[in-house]
What we know:
Blueprint: H1 3-16, H2 23-39, H3 47-56, H4 65-89
Amino acid sequence: MSLALFAAESLVRDFLNGRTLPTALHAAVVQAVEARLVGGLTPVLEEPLCKTMDDAATSPPPWSVESVLKAARERCIQLRRASKAMSGQYAI
Length: 92
């Protein structure tokens, strides 16, 4: 993967913020962003492109990887707090 392609993919994923696009549209958007990066055109994510992504993007399902990781992190924090509270309660 070229650096420009990686950067384009990263920009698109960052803009989508967990949302998804249909596969063909995602590939076309990444290709357009890559061409703008290589061509030195700014802004890279121009308004019509952003509107197209916003219109076609769908929210991740409640069981997505992102939501599972978020829930696991929150549970880990809760367990650490409970562990600290219990260790302080039973300290000799």
